[in-house]
Amino acid sequence: MSLPLPRSDRRRRPTPRSHRPPDNARRNATFQGGKDARRVGNIPPFPSKPPASARQSPAAAAAAHSRLASAARGAMQPDANSPSLRLARVAAHLNPQRPQMEEEGAPALRPAACRAKGGAPGFKVAILGAAGGIGQPLSMLMKMNPLVSVLHLYDVVNTPGVTADVSHMDTGAVVRGFLGAQQLDAALTGMDLVIIPAGLPRKPGMTRDDLFNKNAGIVRILCEGVARCCPDAIVNLISNPVNSTVPIAAEVFKKAGTYNPKRLLGVTTLDVVRANTFVAEVLGVNPRDVNVPVVGGHAGVTILPLLSQVTPPSSFTQEEIKYLTNRIQNGGTEVVEAKAGAGSATLSMAFAAAKFGDACLRAMRGEGGIVECSYVASQVTELPFFATKVRLGRGGAEEILLLGPLNEFERVGLEAAKKELSESIQKGIAFVNK
Ligand code: NAD
Ligand code: LMR
User: What residue spans in the chain does CATH classification 3.90.110.10 cover?
Assistant: First the structure.
């Protein structure tokens, strides 16, 4: 994974800041402009002094802000340092708009326009559920990803704050926020990758399946949006119960006529992240040097770590195998209980989702040899969905890798996993077709 820290600005040429629009103003202006973004040439003349109203009236300040934005779009124009621009900047600063948020009723983004607004070439990524426990740190991590040029943050609550906050990070991706169902289509239009952590988390005593009634409907609505607005996007589905929400998404896409199984990926990376960590603890090595394939699904016994296939090759006692398998299968519950009613894993999940999202983006860019575990449409077993290692490519899950040789303990675990998985899959399919 490559998630570099924000690049420092300190070595830039020492132009006094008052002589040029702030970086964020230039960036925000670039993406705020909508259709106007390409009309950078003709900046109307500013009055030599700002009208008094610009300091008092929001409308006038907004007009000044808009003129500043137009001017800033042509930030390298010869008159960018003119006194009128400086005064307009002050006026806009005194009464700023919320430039990162989509205005209600604004026309939906067009795919072509969207990329042109990006700070750098790269992919357009949407996070649905961006204001939640996973969504917020995941938004931050994706803003740090150099492969992302445009980052759309959608939620039914609190996106203005999260968007304003994340948009101040001095990394290349342009951030735009979308609030509520009426802005879902604008959030999704033109996206290359859609990451979905929307939905309720568990409380102590609940299973992931207990979330089905609430989260199934949320996932259906969001996937209907994906089918309408970015049918070619790769979808990373995090919302639980993943064993059922991925089949739900597949049925939604089938009904819409947009289903491509390669592009629908259930995120099970947290199981691998946990397995690497716990195995590394037992072996006394750095978790970064360990890779444990985890197959099956993402709930209880369906989470099947293949300890016989750990790299680097390692051997474990029976006691270690039982301890590790149990801890990996119950890692989510360990966090739910420790949080004591305040939710489930969010930070480690955001880390895992950012890692998986980065792998998808690198593969979409054409990088070869990227293999990650994911819960996908599969023929590796008799079940229609199963998590195994998959080779990621430009189109998503390009190749589903086989399970490889299993030991007796793993074969028994596989049968238990398949039994529970089968029910969860059927439940998801039935939900959409009832
Ligand atoms: P959270 O409650 O903190 O955040 C969920 C967010 O989803 C909230 O901001 C909420 O407003 C938003 N939301 C609800 N309905 C929405 C809708 N219709 N459209 C858009 N956004 C909507 O929960 P969390 O801790 O972030 O967990 C989110 C989901 O991820 C849960 O279902 C949880 O079980 C799951 N999860 C999965 C894994 C995994 O490994 N796949 C790991 C951890 C958590
Ligand atoms: C996890 O594995 O942490 C998530 O699936 C959340 C949960 O409910 O355990």
Answer: 269-433
CATH 3.40.50.720 residue ranges of the chain are 114-266
Residue from 128, 155, 208, 375 to probe ligand 1 pocket by mutation (most atoms less than 8 Å from CB): 155
> What lines the ligand 2 site, CB under 6 Å?
201-202, 208, 240, 270, 331-332, 335-336, 344-345
Strand partners, 392: 370, 397
The topology (CATH level 3) of 114-266 is Rossmann fold (3.40.50)
- Looking from the CA of residue 208, the nearest atom of ligand 2 is 8
Q: Is 93 a catalytic residue?
A: no
Rounded CA separation 144/46 (Å)? 37
> How remote is the CA of residue 298 from the centroid of ligand 2, in Å?
8
* Fold assignment, 269-433: L-2-Hydroxyisocaproate Dehydrogenase; Chain A, domain 2 (3.90.110)
- In terms of C-beta density within 10 A (0-12 exposed, 13-18 middle, 19 or more buried), how is residue 406 classed? middle
Q: Which atom of ligand 2 is nearest to the CA of 335?
A: 3
CB of 137 within 6 A of ligand 1: the answer is no
Q: The whole model's pTM is what?
A: 0.79
Q: Are 150 and 128 in contact (CB under 8 A)?
A: no
Separation CA 359–CA 166 (nearest Å): 22
Instruction: State the number of CA atoms in the 13 A half-sphere of 99 facing the CB.
Output: 26
Residue 233: C-alpha distances to residues 54, 142, 230, 355 (Å): 43, 16, 5, 18
| Ligand 2, atom 4, residue with closest C-alpha | 332
Output the tens digit of pLDDT for each of the chain's 434 residues: 343 333 333 333 333 333 333 333 333 322 222 222 222 222 222 223 333 333 334 344 334 434 333 333 333 333 545 555 555 444 443 343 444 665 555 544 444 344 444 445 799 999 999 999 999 999 999 999 999 999 999 999 999 999 999 999 999 999 999 999 999 999 999 999 999 999 999 999 999 999 999 999 999 999 999 999 999 999 999 999 999 999 999 999 999 999 999 999 999 999 999 999 999 999 999 999 999 999 999 999 999 999 999 999 999 999 999 999 999 999 999 999 999 999 999 999 999 999 999 999 999 999 999 999 999 999 999 999 999 999 999 999 999 999 999 999 999 999 999 999 999 999 999 999 98
**Which ligand has its closest atom nearest to the C-alpha of 332?**
2
Closest ligand 1 atom number to CA of residue 267:
41
